[in-house]
Structure formats: structure tokens, C-alpha cells
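Look over this today:
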Amino acid sequence: MPVIHPAAVVAPDAILADSVTIGPFCVVGPEVELGPGVELLSHVVVAGRTAIGEDTRIFPFASVGHAPQDMKYKGEASRLVIGRGNVIREHVTINPGTAGDRMETRIGDNCLFMVGVHVAHDCIIGNNVIMANNATLAGHVVIDDFAVFGGLSAVHQFVRIGKHAMVGGVTGVERDVIPYGSVMGDRARLSGLNIVGMQRRGFTRDDIQALRTAYQMLFVAETGTFAERREAVAERFGAVTPVREVLDFIAADSARGLCQPKANGG
């Protein structure tokens, strides 16, 4: 049976796996689903049509699943889906989707959201994403696997952040960030590649060197148009997985344009 503190308030219609633990002063709504091993430490509120996956831990004063902070939201039956093994720290807020987009906010597995993180409506977050204290996402943001966000960073609505990207602290991101890219600044500028992250995750020296050369060709070289440089990179390095991922990211549809180095004028 779930372990529920007598000071918690749990709706009788909530779906709880047998190994759920709910601490004192938590509130769980009637349409909430908590998977095996989920733990709400204390003073956690989980509302709305929210499903939380196995072994996720949520710390005090987090608010998960309440109505989006969107003036267009009219109470539609949108959802919030959170994967397995996540850690959601104090004062984190996560909102469900809206009819203006996909009707769902989705978070993958093994993410860490530190104190005060905000995830707005209709965001899609991959696996192993880390967001440091008070990092915030506006609505409709898409974050790929292993992206890392420094404290007090903020991402504009509809921006895409590629896999293994690094967003520096106190950085405002208004444009898409390529996979493996590193951005920083009051208004984010591409400052290079997240080489340290790649090394920590076991990328080969050859792949890292190929990506470095491709980056130089794309963003530093001054010959030809950007489209021509993309073609040259694809011809030379198209078989290298990280380079191909960058090229595919650039070629995909975007509402916000691409974050560029400062020297290129953005």
C-alpha cells in the first residue's frame, strides 16, 4: 500500500502505485497518477491531469500541474506527463499544456530541476536535462537530451535547445541553440562548443575534433554564404553523428532563428 502521512490530503480518485510515499501537508488532486517509488517529501501540491513516473522525488513547496500562466488558457483538459527518476527540488513550478499547442507538457527521465525552476505550458523536455536554480522556460520550448542550464537563465517561448547544449548562468536565450553548443551573455550568443560535456559523456576524440572543425567552418569562416558552408560541412563530415545532428537541427523548422556568435552579428 502507499505510505501516506495523516497530514496529507489525497483525493480518493487519485491513482497511486503501491510503493508511493506522500509526506506531511502534501495535496494530491483527483486526476493525478503517481508511479511506483514516487516520493512527495512534504508540502508538495500535485494537481490537474498529471502523471509522474517511477522513482521521481519532489521536494517541499513544489507546485506541479496547476493551470498554466497563459491568458489564453480556458480550462481545457490538457496534461502534464513527467517521466522516471527525476528530481524536482523546492519551489519548482511545472504547468500542463494548452489548446494553443499540443495540449501537453512532457518531461523525460532522469532530469534535475533545482530550486525555483519554472517549466511553462507546452514545453517538451528530453532525458538527463539539468536546470540550475531559478532557470526558467517560457511556453512551447523544446529541450533535447543532456542540455544544461545555468542559474537564472531564461528561455524565450518557441525556442529549441539542442542535445548536449550548455546555457550559461544569467543568460537570456531568444534564438535556437545548436546541439553541443555553448551560449552565454545578457542576450545569448554562441560562444563555442560544450567540449567538457562531450568528454564527460564519452564522445571520441575523433568525433570531438570533427565537430570542432565543422563549427569553425559554419560559424567562424567568412567565405561563402551560410548555406554554402553547410553544404561543405555535410560533404566533409556528414557521416559523423554529432555533426549530422547539428546539420539536421539547423535544417529543421524554427520559429526563432539560430543563435550565432557575436562577431557574426547574430
Q: What stands out?
A: The radius of gyration is 20 Å. The mean pLDDT is 97. The domain at 199-264 is CATH 1.20.1180 (Udp N-acetylglucosamine O-acyltransferase; Domain 2). Helices lie at 195-200, 205-220, 226-237, 241-251.
